[in-house]
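Listing S7. Sequence submitted for prediction.
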Amino acid sequence: MVNRKKSGDESFRDKDIPSNNLDESDNKGIVDSVDRYSIPQKAYREKFQIAISSIIASSALTISKFIIAILTNSLGLLSEGMHSGLDVFAAMMTLYAVRISRKPPDVDHNYGHAKFESLASLGAVLLLFVVAGWILYEGFERILFKHVNPEVTVVSFGVLIASIIVDYWRSRALYKVANKYGSQAIEADALHFRVDMITSSVVLVGLAIVFIFQIPNVDAYAAIVVAILIVYTSLGLGRRTLDVLLDKAPKGIQGRIHESIIGFEGIKKVHSIRVRKVGQETFVDLHIEVPRTYTHDKAHRIATNVEDKIKNELLPNCDVVVHVDAVEDEMSETIKDKVRLISEDFPAVKNIHSLYISKVVSDTELNAGGQNEDLNLKFRPLHLYLDVQMDDKLDFKIAHGVVDDFEKKIKTEIPNIIRVTTHIETDMDIESSVGQEEFADKTFLDKIKGIALSVKGVTECNDISLVYIKGELHITLTIKINPNHLKSSEEGGLEGSLHLGNFSNSSGDDSSSINKTGDHYDSNSNNSRSQRSEISVEKAHSISTMVQNLLLQNTKASRVIVHAEPDE
């Protein structure tokens, strides 16, 4: 079972989603998720504008630096010009990546196109490494082999100071947008401008030393420092970009997810937690194990609660997929649960009901005069009785073969069940079992009422209905049970005319009592305890069963349904 929360927006035009010759059902799931993955128009516009302004600023700085570098013969300025030129190229890559990443998911890119920004970021980092390599090469060549005297002018100082101001302004604006929308491409662009600002400052200091102290090689040394700074500042972004491209999970997030949901009621185990980032969104998928006796609806509710927990408390902007594994739970599964689960493996078995078990007494126990009560149901040999409903048109020989296999599987999977007795009956759906209510004469109704009232504790009998279903008589009735009446009968030693026996509470537990309203009981209500006697559900069921059996014995009814109420 997989649970996934979707936005369910189907308002997008068909042309927005390429079909790739898939059928309509294949495309529908993609269309449903388009809105959730799409970059909002406002965010796209802001990112697009910042990328355009970066291209303009980088172009202006590049042209001015190259002109001054050629005029002054400064390696520092030339390296700055190269750097700014690559800034232009990086800004253009950023612009392209922003446009592509805006595209919604399609049949080829189910998780969207946000990783194009990470690819652009990686490309920008590689360009920075190329620039650093070229600057290092030129710097060492000038120090070791060439002797170039750069010409320092006021204009060169002015260009560098202007460059520092522009770089600071652009890097700050770019980092703000990058942090706001989690864009690695914009972050890489911001890094370019920040590195440009730092390197321009270093070159400015180098030119100042050349101008003041007339030391020509300082310019080359400044260029080498620039290259080292470029490599150092690029490594961090490069590592983060590779983490995204290689689907590295955020540090510690699996442990936090596990701790936050392992305590949920019904969850036995959490495993296979996987987390990855794609652009601004984080994708999470995990497996939870719940008892196999849970209904699909209950398991789905647990999975939804897990989704909400992760979305609301851990990762606000995320997509969560929860896979539910149904597992055996020895602590809570009953024999009835196990048998019902086994029956689901046999399509011909439509339903099972009336499951009973009895303890199989061994020869040793018989010779000892009784059973070994120390053995519980989990370990002692058992005999299972049950009714199996099957299609009434099914060939009896085939039906018997299915039931034989069913019995064998029960004994295989529940080893202490050594005998199985099944009763095959037809599967009656609600449409085929519609009955016809009949009116009975007063004599028959009085007979039914008299039989019910003969049972100790029954004070009233009403709402008697007679229904014929496929020629069989079904009786329904309502009885009222008064615990005081039952108690007085028992204390007086009265024996019922039908020899119904003693009705003492075999469980010895008076906590399961019914209050005067019949809705529920309050185990902490001392007042209600003092005002009335109590009767357990077990006792009420026993009385109803006695009424049921007496009516089956003394009427021609095939089925009797007794509804019991407390006599207020």
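Caption to Listing S7: primary sequence and predicted structure tokens for the chain studied. Residues 41-72 form the longest helix (32 residues). The domain at 436-566 is CATH 3.30.70.1350 (Alpha-Beta Plaits).
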